[in-house]
Amino acid sequence: MMRPSGRNLSDMRPISIETGIMRHAEGSCLISCGDTRVLCSASIEEKAPPFLKGSGQGWVTAEYGMLPRATNTRNRREAAAGKQSGRTQEIQRLIGRALRAGVDRRALGERQIVVDCDVIQADGGTRCAAITGGWVALRLAMNKLLKAGIVTADPIMDHVAAVSCGIYAGQPILDLDYAEDSEAGTDGNFIMTGAGRLIEVQMSAEGATFSRPEMNQLLDLAEAGIAELVRAQNEAVACAG
């Protein structure tokens, strides 16, 4: 079977992570997964949310948005509508949950890091790109805290990355672009640590149910994809110095 992009079933899209995109943010990067591009920044706030006051623990949260012409047709700005869509709220909560899974919140101390993920071009997998790029921005922000001696132990416990897998034309495939995502019988997002431990799995039968063996095949693809994303994260952080 030939994928619309010409990729093999187990091929990722080209990955690029450029750091230092935003001069004012403590950590930032532009992640490109094929034609999907997400701008990620991490901002350090020297106080934790009120519900953590006196706990000795910090917090990592996220916000997610999409520029009006990130897609084929213009989407109205959510600010103009006066509220966030349910999709936006669900995705930014997912990003926050995922990134917190890789952080020792006690080592972070009573401060908050906000990770902003803004999609500037969408071609499938925006939430996965946001998580993967968001981790890089978070890592860079943590490096600044460590360098300044504000924290003494590294709050980052492991990498966090995410990739989509699905069943397209009856075949399990890795890293779906929009053409595949819109036609997939089964669609899933896999969020994992660098050590290969699962953080969250989102799977649904969009057009056809799937079997346990098929799910196992998708998990195998996801593990390989996550390993490739972790390598890209390491290279980006190393280049940032």
Characterization of the model:
With 241 residues, this protein is of the alpha+beta class. Strand 2 and strand 3 form a beta hairpin. The protein has a five-stranded mixed sheet with strand order 1-2-3-5-4. A four-stranded antiparallel sheet has the order 7-6-8-9, with helices on both faces. The mean pLDDT is 95. The chain has one domain: Ribosomal Protein S5, domain 2 (2-Layer Sandwich), CATH 3.30.230. The protein contains six helices and nine strands. The longest helix is centred in the last third of the chain and has 29 residues.
Number of strands: 9
Order of helices and strands: EEEEHHHEHEEHEEH
Q: If you compute it from the alpha carbons, what radius of gyration comes out, rounded to the nearest whole angstrom?
A: 18 Å
* Highest-level CATH class: Alpha Beta
Tally of structural domains = 1
CATH topology: Ribosomal Protein S5, domain 2
Quick one: overall form? Answer: globular
Largest sheet: 5 strands, mixed
Note the main attributes of this structure:
single chain; 241 residues; alpha+beta; Ribosomal Protein S5, domain 2; five-stranded mixed sheet; four-stranded antiparallel sheet; rRNA processing; tRNA-binding; tRNA binding; RNA-binding
